[in-house]
Amino acid sequence: MNRPSVLCVMAFVLICTGSVGNAAERRPNVVVFMIDDLGWTDAGCYGSDLYETPNIDRLAAGGMRFTDAYAACTVCSPTRAAMMTGMYPPRLNLTDWIDGMWEHLSPQRQSRHPLMPPEWTQQLEHRYTTLAEALNAAGYKTAHVGKWHLTPRSDDKSVVEPFYPRNQGFDVNIAGNQWGAPGSYYWPYRRARQQTDIGARVANFPDTATTQGKYLTDMLTDQAVSIIEGWKSEPFFLYFAHYAVHTPIQGRNDLTKKYAAKITPKHRHRNAQYAAMVESVDHSVGRVVETLAKLSILENTVIIYTSDNGGLSRMKNGPTINTPLRAGKGSPYEGGVRIPTIINWPGIVAKGSVSHEPIITCDFYPTILDVTGAEGDKNHNANVDGKSLVPILKQSNTAFDRKAIYWHYPHYHSGGSTPYSAVRAGPWRLIEFYEDNRVELYHLANDIGEKNELSKKHPARAKELTAMLHRWRKQVEAQPPRANPEFKSK
């Protein structure tokens, strides 16, 4: 689908008019789009001067756009775990992407770092009640489509499959396994040295003439649409976790040619392959919304559109740029954790509304339970760190009573990050670096690009936020990095 159909446009008109139809007769469906590595400015409604995202833009026009939404971590797996549990990653002891960087470094490169990561958990443990389990217990059908990346590091089927989505509360799992990225976005999506692939191993995509050369984003959307059509008469939760726009940066050929011809030196975003990937995601959003409208269930569906971390911006000439934010994925700065987030709830959320309240991935768990009326597990709920966003969704200028949101990343990252923790309280954001215990303080309302470090100018504020950060780390039992016994100083 290269352009939104008339039906798709009509679907978004239903959203924008706030028609609720027979919503009171049935609990709302929930669709979550989790886009991989999507940067804060990677949509037209978030200021891109290149990417064409009419379906996403209409979703924002008919719902609420959050300007200060944050991922729970600067990398993917911890954020996905926070989505599934409502808990901060350090409370789960799942603080890095499942493979992590450390074990991929040679001993010589490891010795250059004074610290090493803690003994962290490399799977989503079964002792937590996932969002899918909570909704399944409440009578919802549950489906996972796309990237999971919450299993142990292994190619042993007996080791990883117990942690697949089907064993974490999902009735259906399409393409969710131990992979963090495909080897290619064209069928069969395998990595060059692997004999198995997403299609044959997990999703059971048929290896036929119709799948040869099929683009992964389109294939996953076919599956999502089929699931919605099959469940149209009962409440469902669809967690659509796209592999896009993660590397390899490989756009659909027709769309890549389109952007290559469009880009000029005046554009801030200039990567044609990445632009094509973003538009493919937009097509996916449009097709899902079109399906919901065709089945007359759009007006009774809550749609959440978000990302797992900031955009990948460290590579030369791309793939994206997060300006005006500083840095990108893997960094401790705003570009690493501030993300686009849109929530559409017909009849409840005012069309075109905007919230400037800081929110974080952990908030989606209690929000979805609140929206659906699912109780969840009381013991699990007692440790949920997020807050329901329903009050904000009903009134965009609502301010939470929480004092701060937090991050903890006791790891090194190839994007340039050294181990750190951070806190945002009001307009202030403080980062504490473990290597030398220094802090950096920024006033985001005046300096969104984090160019002016203020800890010396505002020592009392820096001391206050540092104390808050230390109390929080103790509360969630955040593991610090360890001293590296093999460290060799220059």
Short description:
The protein has 490 residues and is of the alpha/beta class. Helices cover 29% and strands 15% of the residues.
List keywords for this structure.
15 strands, 9-stranded mixed β-sheet, 4-stranded antiparallel β-sheet, Alkaline Phosphatase, subunit A, alpha/beta
Explain this structure.
The protein is α/β, with parallel strands linked by helices. Helix 10 (253-262) crosses helix 11. Strands 1, 2, 4, 5, 6, 7, 8, 9 and 10 form a 9-stranded mixed beta sheet that branches. A 4-stranded antiparallel beta sheet has the order 11-12-13-14, covered by helices on one side. A two-stranded antiparallel ribbon has the order 3-15. A hairpin with a 5-residue loop joins strand 13 (428-433) and strand 14 (439-443). It has a single domain (6-397), classed as Alkaline Phosphatase, subunit A (3-Layer(aba) Sandwich), CATH 3.40.720. The chain is built from 16 helices and 15 strands.
